[in-house]
Amino acid sequence: MNISAIEVLKARKALAGIVDRTPLTRSDGLSDLSGAEVYVKWENLQRTGSYKVRGALYRMSLLSPDEKSRGVITTSAGNWALGVALGAKSLGIDATICVPENTPKVKIGKCEALGAEVVLHGRYFDESFAHCQKLADESGKTYVSGTEDFSVMAGHGTVGMEMLEDLPDIETIVCPVGGGGLLTGIAAWAKAVNPAIRIIGVQSTAAYTLHECYKSKRLLEVPVPATICEGLAGGIVQLNLDLALKYFDDVVLAEEEKLKDAIVWMMRNERHIVEGAAVVGPAAIMQKKLRLAEGERVGVVVSGGNIDLEWLATSEA
After folding, report:
1. What's this model's pTM, rounded to 2 decimal places?
2. Are the C-beta atoms of residues 41 and 22 closer than 8 Å to each other?
3. Same domain assignment for residues 110 and 178
C-alpha cells in the first residue's frame, strides 16, 4: 500500500495548463505569533477556490473511453464537487454531484455554473454518500471517490511538490485533514524527498473523526455536531486510517469556537478569504496547538476559500 513519487510526477504532467500553481508566501503574522518561519500555501487561489481540482482532474484523466462516455458521479461536501465539475468540463464528461443539504450555496452555484447536475440529499456526508451509491447503480455512471483513490491522492500531492520546490528546506508541513487524502498525497512526495519532514494534520474540536481514529489506531464512530468545517466532517475507512498512521507524525485539534476569529484574522492580516475547513492550520498556530521551534521552517496549507459571504457578514466574529 503506497503512493509513489512517480505517480505524483505523472499527475503534475496531466494537470499542466489546467490547474494553477498557487503561491507560497511568508506570513509575518503567523511567524510573529509562533516564533517559527511560517509560509502559507494559498490553495484558496486555485481554480474553483480549492485544491480538490488537482486530484479530481487527474483521476478522471485516467478513465477509459467507455467510463467517460457514461459520465461520472460523486459525493462531496463542496470542494471535491467543484473539482469534479471543473475536471469533467475540461475533459468533456457529464457529471452528477450529490451534496449534503448544509453545503454552502456558493459551492452549489459554482458546480452548476460549470455544467454539473447537483443533487442535494441528507444532512451529513454519509447520508449523501448512500444516496449517491444508489444513483450510481441506477444510472451506470462511474463513481469517483475523493478519499479512497491513490490517483486522487497523487494529484493532491502536487501541492507538496510545489511547496518543496519553493521552500526546499521546509521542516514541517501543517494541513487540514478530513479523510486525509490531501495530506497523504503531500506526505508521499515530501517524505520521498526528505523523510525527516514532519507531517501534521489538523481538525477541529467539532469535526475530529480522523483525530480520534488516529490516536486510537482503529476505526471509531464519532458524533459530528454542527461545524463550520463541513469539509472535515464525516467518517473514514480503513484505507484512510492506515495511510494516516503510515505518513502522519501527528494530528491535532483547533478549537471550533475560535475558528470564526481565525477567519476574520486571516482577512485582516493576510487579505485572504479562507473557509472554515481551511483555516484550521493557521488557527492551530494561533491557538498554540503545535510544538514549533524558534526559526523552524513551517509550511501551512490553506486548502480553500469557498465560504458564504452572507455567513461572514452575519458572524459575530
Report:
1. 0.92
2. yes
3. no
Written as one letter, the residue type at 140 is G
**Greater pLDDT, 55 or 110:** 55
Q: How many domains does the chain have?
A: 2
Distance CA 79, CA 196 (A): 31
Domain-terminating residue out of 121, 143, 165: 143
Q: What is the pLDDT of residue 317?
A: 44
Domain that holds residue 65: 52-143
139 vs 316 pLDDT, higher one: 139
Q: How many CB atoms sit inside 10 A of residue 8's CB?
A: 24
Domain boundary among 116, 143, 170: 143
CA distance 53 to 21: 12
- Residue 190 sits in a domain whose CATH number is 3.40.50.1100
Where does the chain have alpha helices with state H? Answer: 5-15, 28-34, 52-61, 65-70, 79-91, 105-113, 125-139, 150-156, 158-166, 181-193, 209-216, 238-247, 259-270, 280-286, 309-314
Asked whether the predicted pLDDT for residue 258 surpasses 60, the reply is: yes
Same domain? For 124 and 257 the reply is no
181-193 vs 238-247: helix crossing angle, rounded to 10: 30
- The pLDDT assigned to 283 comes to 98
Q: How far apart are CA 17 and CA 153, in angstroms?
A: 19
pLDDT tens per residue across span 207-227: 999 999 999 999 999 988 889
Q: What is the mean pLDDT of residues 123-138?
A: 91
Kindly state whether residues 260 and 277 are assigned to the same domain: yes
Name the grid cell of 299: 509550511
For residues 224 and 233, is the Cβ–Cβ distance under 8 A? yes
Residue 78's pLDDT is 74
Q: Is 76 in the same domain as 199?
A: no
Say if CB 202 and CB 284 are below 8 A apart. Answer: yes
52's CB contacts (< 8 A; 6+ apart) are 79, 80, 82, 83, 84, 146, 156, 304
